[in-house]
Amino acid sequence: MSKLVTIYGGSGFVGRYIARRMAKQGWRVRVAVRRPNEALFVKPYGAVGQVEPILCNIRDDNSVRAAMQGADAVVNCVGVLNSIGKNSFDAVHHDGAGRVARIASEEGVGQLVQLSAIGANADSDSEYARTKAQGEADVQAAFPGAVILRPSVIFGTDDQFFNRFANMTRFGPVLPITGGNTKFQPVHVDDVAKAAEMAALGQVEAGIYELGGPDVETLRESIDRMLEVTQRRRLVLNLPFGIARLQAGIFDLIQWISGGLIAAPLTRDQVTNLGYDNVVAEDAKGFADLGITRAPWPRSCRTICGASARAGNMPPSRARPRTCAPTAKPTVHQLGKGAVFRAFFR
Length: 346
Fold this sequence. Notes:
By secondary structure, this protein is an alpha/beta fold. The chain has one domain: NAD(P)-binding Rossmann-like Domain (Rossmann fold, 3-Layer(aba) Sandwich). 37% of the residues lie in helices and 15% in strands. It has 11 helices and 13 strands. The strands form 4 sheets. The chain has a 7-stranded parallel sheet, sandwiched between helices. Strands 7-10 form a two-stranded parallel sheet. Strands 8-13 form a two-stranded parallel sheet. Strand 1 (4-8), helix 1 and strand 2 form a beta-alpha-beta unit. Helix 1 packs across helix 6, helix 2 (61-68) crosses helix 3 (89-106) and helix 3 (89-106) runs parallel beside helix 4 (127-142). The radius of gyration is 19 Å and the shape is globular. The relative contact order is 0.14.
């Protein structure tokens, strides 16, 4: 019987690329998600019955264990951009990652891959970055042979980076951002998926790998590139961090009063993260150690944004360029006004 991989969060933007790659390797793929009925789009990635979405709650031991039964490899892609209710940063990034690693060790899983993020730091003043680091520590303690991947900003077809910005330009002549001088090293989603695939196949040494694309740009430079590709002229307004924090504080208050029913489009924690460069450290292991050739940022930018420019008002999910990228899950939130600020965090 072919080998089995369980991918927690396998219907997400990165997870679906990993699922597709593992299916092409001939593995059975178990996609563990909170709402399997909304993840049926992953089934065509393989032969009939090869890729199956199942119900799983990463906050529950029994649920995580059931999804892992019989798995030869495990990939954890679960992450949140906004700490809401029970799905807090601590519950998902810290406890959730540690839970998956602990149970993987108990179940005798061969390979464990944990998706984290560049900037993970136990001493950070950002809860997002701090819990990512705490999760990494728990993973390495419970499963010393784990491979931890720290990508920078991830982009690709139907991403939440360039397509978000491209769509935001349709709302008016002004495009507000914050952290315009912050540096990023955008990495293509399939390059990250390739690294995860190699790790799941046991072709990567244990440790932490920081994954960044071949180019380093400031946020403002990336926005200017996007406007050039989409052939739109907009006034890019770089808001001071003080104003952005004040605005985010109001959004956080509304989210708290509504009990999470109204999600904050921008949080104070996200503003904090936007104050730090998001690039690969000089001494970090990365794509070179994996033997992966990275997709060029300019060419990828044109491939992704070109469809948005040609299609005018058509959302990116309906204006897909001709690529072999996995089918994206339809979402009614793709054009949310605050979504631009969510693009910076996996």
